[in-house]
Amino acid sequence: MNKPKVLFIDDEERIVRSLTMQFRTSYKVKGLTDPAEALNLIRNDHYHVVVSDQRMPEMQGTELLKQVREISPLTIGILLTGYADLPAVIGAINDGEIFRYLTKPWNTEEITQVLGKATDIAIQMEQFSTVEGTKPTAAKPTGPHIMVMDGDPAVHEAIASQFEGKYIVHWAPNLDTVFELLTTHDIALAITDLMLEEEEITPVLGTLKQHNPNILTIVLTTVKDSKIVINLINQAQVFRYLPKPIRPNLLNKSVSAALERYTQLCDTPILTKRHSVEEGSTHKKVTPKKTSGFLQRLKARFANAKAATT
Amino acid sequence: MRLSFKYKLSLVFVLVTLLVAGTGVYLLYAQTYELVLTQLGNRLRDIGSTGTLVFGPKERTQIVNLTKQIQQDALVLTEAALAAIPEGETLSSLAPKVAARYMAGADFQNLVQKLRSIKRATRSKIRPFPQDHLPQVPKDINADPFRILYTYLVIPLITPTGPHQSLSIFLADSDYEKQPDEEGNPIGGIYREVKTGAVLVPALQTGHTKIAHTFITDKWATVLTAGVPIQDADGKTIAVLGIDLDVLSEANRLRRLKWLAFGIVSGISILALILSYFAAQRLSWPIQSLKQGAERVRAGDLNTQVVLQTGDEFDVLAQTFNAMVRQIQEHTENLEQKVADRTQELSQALHKLKASQTQLVQSEKMAMLGQMVAGLAHEINTPLGYMKNNIIMTRSIIEQFDQLTVASSKLEQVFKQETASVEQQNDALNNLSCMTAEIIEQELPDATAQLLEDILYGITQVSELVLSLRTFAQLDQALIQAVDVHDCIDSALRIGHHRLKHVVEVRKNYGDLPTIECSPARINQVILNLLHNAADAISTVREKGEIVITTTNVDADTIQIKIQDNGKGIDTKHLDKIFEPFYTTKPAGEGAGLGLAICSQIIEQHKGNIQVESTIGWGTTVTITLPT
Q1: How far is Cα A149 from Cα B390, in angstroms, rounded to an integer?
Q2: Pairing assessment for the beta strands B504-509 and B237-246 based on DSSP bridges
Q3: CB of A109 within 8 Å of any CB in chain B?
Q4: Per residue, what are the HEC states of A217-267?
Q5: B28 by DSSP, 3-state: which?
Q6: pLDDT tens across B50-64, in order?
Q7: Which of B90, B112, B213, B390 has the most beta carbons within 10 angstroms of its beta carbon?
């Protein structure tokens, strides 16, 4: 059987050594300390998963993973970093579009699990890409629906006026409205703050992604906590992380990219695998009452939808 | 000249009074003088015209004859000699002998008699009849108003160019002999009249009676002169009869009148001066009060009120002034209140500002600390990562070896057992060799050695880091101590390693330095901050830069640390402000702009000096000097 191929990159050779040694039996592993060399390797050979350090002399990990994605779109990127400074984490979302963000010292079980999942997905995607022509021509969503999840009406107004005539912008100032919109419209993109009705909604975003992987999320927030942002990657696979106040140019670019990706995901549903999140991670947390009620409703809704389709 | 309003006002009064009184009195005097002169002149004219009557045909012939004789016998006189005759003086034109002969002659004597008769006539006429309507006739006989002093005859002086314009010749005089108190006018004397009262020559020339317009005072008398022409049968003027009227008394009276007028004017002026002073004072007191009020206000007495009650414009002015003062008072009170309020607000703001500045400095320090911690976390987490992983792996390897041990002991057991079949022996052997093969295939012994070695390396790394952290912060040592600056630099380099290693090559250029007294933790902080700055400056423009750290012993008391980078450099316009708190070119959120401010503060506390030189595109050099 062909073992999935995994590439480890870290400027500390001992890390590379340790990881390659750990996974040498499970995967076909390769370890490098030079990002440039890694890029050359990727160009010539397909790797399913690339695990990279963030701080390296030649190149930042996010930059490396971005280039890897460009060279090999089916390769899944994972960041393994010693210190989670906010710019790096945000870069990991916006530039790297990474699958997971892991911190050193890592949990052996966790990394094994993540790598397992990543390689599974990568192999599925690889198989799909080798079987050409099965691309379903999904009906182009007429005027993509955007949902603004923010308690501040000014934010909705600003976004609505920016995209007037281009997209249909809905406003969800609370979780009930979010639920209602999700049942009535095919929401392509959620532009959301991290706090809604004074509650942190990362779990909501996670559940949303878990049950409807097509929906893309742009987080627009003042929150600057690298831990939360890491959770946004690992548990909710947010597409972009933008700081408030809104910078129209940046938002426009992000929204365009998101909708392009949405179309891509609709056309090629297998790609949504790439955005799968940590399952059940939301249950581990002590979820606030209101949010948990919502989560149950949301889960029920998607369960119904699934039942209906099957 | 500064004069108070009061004096100006009184001066104006005095001048006006002087002008009015002076003009009035002068006009009065001039009228009187004119009147006296006219009256005397008219009387003299009458006397004169009457007097000519005594010169009958016989006398006129005598005049003509004498004239001819004089003209024949006259001495030849130069023009210069004539011109030299002063006013009122005579120059004889006849030799004394000739003159004496003429004067002894009958013609001359007859003429003198006639002249004397005129003189006597006027006197005798008046003396016996003192006029009743002139009650103030002076008691002094010498001041008798109608005394004719002299009567005389003059003839024209004929020069080669014709009759002389201002000289005449005495023909006869009522008092020609030498008198006790005067010389008299002998025949032939060339006479120059006093110009202001000239009548003789004009009468000779015009043939009309001329009266002088002024009194003439000479060394003998004060007179009013009339010139009355005497004509022959043909109407030709042959001589002029001169009459001198004694006007001493009138002149004296007029002079006295003049003094009186002067006195009156002076008196009026003095009176005016005194009166005007009081009047001015009276008029100007409202202004004085206002002035004093204004001065009091200026001196700060805002309760000042000026009360005039004059009912005029001054009153209005005073009321306006009072209103103004009240307004000023109100404003002042408000202002004081406002100033007090503002001062309080300001001091509160200052207090807040100081508090927030302290807070900001603190938070910047924390940020610097945070940056350091971030780096350290990375530095520690990396070894921790592989150490942990390696230990877990080693554990599983040990398990494999455990199994191997179990297998080998089983083999031993099988072989020792007599009852064991060959099959059992083979199984055990196979099992063991399989396991061994797996271990060898996986190169487990070597791998384990490598894993353990890496763990040991990691432990060394972490303990070194912890040690340098302790050195850096000097947690367990005195605050101020003798320190080798190189230790500080090395410590900072170790702490900053994670930030520097990817960006820069550090070149050390250490000199031979004495130890210095300083707070090593603080100096470490400064150097780390400067290294971070250098790394930031480099990473914006190039992949890999260079930092050169040079230390020199400048002199016995000073050492120098120079940190040079080849980063982007600092614009000259920023260079001056670089040590100012909160000055930053980084975007908001990335540093409060306190790093260098804190550095400079620390260096100042060490009585040292920190300077920055920079060239855009070439890099920056920070020079620190510290006392030993």
Answers
A1: 45
A2: unpaired
A3: no
A4: EEEEECCCCHHHHHHHHHHHCCCEEEECCCCHHHHHHHHHHHHHHHHHHHH
A5: helix
A6: 888 888 888 899 998
A7: B390
What are the structure tokens assigned to A94, written together? 């916006």
CB A181 within 8 A of CB A301: no
- Cβ atoms of A167 and A191 within 8 Å: the answer is no
Question: pLDDT-derived band of residue B592, with 50, 70 and 90 as boundaries?
Answer: low
Residues in contact with B130: Cβ distance below 8 Å, sequence separation at least 6, in sequence order = B137
For residue A20, which amino acid is it? T
- Interchain CB contact of A57 with B (< 8 Å): yes
Side chain identity, residue B358: T
Instruction: State mean pLDDT over A156-176.
Output: 86
What CA–CA distance (Å, rounded) separates B99 from B44?
30
Helix (H) or strand (E) holding A59, with range, is none
Least CA distance to B385: which residue of chain A? Answer: A105
Of B374, B387, B392, the CB nearest to A108: B392
- Asked if residue B306 lies in contact with residue B290, where contact means CB atoms within 8 angstroms, the answer is yes
A41's tokens: 């390797």
Q: Which neighbouring-strand residues pair with B154?
A: B170, B240
Specify the 3-state DSSP secondary structure of A186. coil
What structural domains does chain A harbor? 5-132 (3.40.50.2300), 145-308 (3.40.50.2300)
Looking at the DSSP assignment, which residues form a beta bridge with residue B222?
A: B217
Section B583-592 average pLDDT: 62
DSSP string of B392-449?
HHHHHHHHHHHHHHHHHHHHHHHHH-TT--HHHHHHHHHHHHHHHHHHHHTTHHHHHH
- Give the relative orientation of helices A289-309 and A202-211 as an angle to the nearest 10 degrees: 10
Answer whether B379 touches A (CB < 8 Å): yes
DSSP symbols for B146-172: T-EEEEEEEEEEEETTEEEEEEEEEEE
Using DSSP's 3-state secondary structure scheme, residue A191 falls into strand
Whether A26 has its CB under 8 Å from any CB of chain B: the answer is: no
Non-local CB neighbours of B34 within 8 Å, separated by 6+ positions: none
Nearest-by-CA chain B residue for A111 = B389
Query: What letter represents residue B569's amino acid?
Result: G
Interchain contact, B381 vs A55, CB within 8 Å: no
More confident call, A199 vs B109 = B109
Longest distance between any two alpha carbons in chain B, whole Å: 227
Contact B389 A103 (CB under 8 A): no
* Residue B505 scores a pLDDT above 70: yes
Give the C-alpha separation, A106 to A102, whole Å. Answer: 7
- What's the pTM? 0.53
